[in-house]
Amino acid sequence: MSRDPAVAAASFGFVNHRCAKDVKAFQEQKGSSEAVKACFAKETKTLTSTCGKEVHAFAECLADPESGSCSRPEWDLRVCVRSNFGFDSALEQKKQAARLSKSTVPTELADSEKLETAASRWK
């Protein structure tokens, strides 16, 4: 994961999803913590090289939510990830919409398209 806590938080859900097999193997004592660390580093790099602008915008928002920089970064990051990596299932959208109450996503979007926090987005 990134050394910048805000960037790490912004990319956590994506990285956690992409490294689920390594994490599960480690939890079941069939894998190593080194494999998990390597996967997290690789997937963080993949995300930031593909959606870096969006990750950093969302990281700025997480670091200082009152700064006024939080108009759409969650949505922009989700669109970038969905476009480049194909993440998005109807079931996940329904779960997220059901949990949403304080989104920064524009209200004209359908409930099923709204976002929750980065950490739970791709679980």
UniProtKB/TrEMBL annotation:
It comes from the Eukaryota. Residues 99-123 are annotated as: Disordered. This is IMS import disulfide relay-system CHCH-CHCH-like Cx9C domain-containing protein. It comes from Acanthamoeba castellanii (strain ATCC 30010 / Neff).
